[in-house]
């Protein structure tokens, strides 16, 4: 398991957005995410959406690199009022990238930490366990580990003569 803290890569992400080239440390993080069998993507919620650093990291990924990747979506925030942010910001983002998001998103509000764990209809540990089980089931049937993605591969049907076969 690899944990990537984006705050440690903030300058690298910004430099990549400006130059188009990742640092060695950022390249390692990108390869870890795009080569994973499953992903747990968690962001703090700011003004009802994911953080700018989170989105900037997603923006530097190849748009096809997360296709068919099982993803557990998670977020943290100050109040339960933003718990739907997973469904109206994160889920559409990962759907656009053709990732496979598990049905249960995990949102943790301040009330989940030390307040008895009661938030909504279930406790945080219960939501985490349910989402983790869904992620494990998707990873078990995923064929991502069988694929090799070559960023320099020629498109299918490419002909050396410069034309494409139909």
UniProtKB/TrEMBL annotation:
Can you give the residue ranges of the NADPH-dependent FMN reductase-like domain? Answer: 2-113
- Report if keyword Transport is assigned: no
Q: Which Pfam families match?
A: FMN_red
Residue stretches in coiled coil:
none
Give the record's keywords alphabetically: Flavoprotein, FMN, Oxidoreductase
Matches recorded under Gene3D superfamilies: 3.40.50.360
InterPro entries recorded: CE1759_FMN_reduct, Flavoprotein-like_sf, FMN_Rdtase-like_dom, NAD(P)H-dep_FMN_reductase
SUPFAM superfamilies recorded for this chain? Answer: Flavoproteins (SSF52218)
- The protein in question is named NADPH-dependent FMN reductase-like domain-containing protein
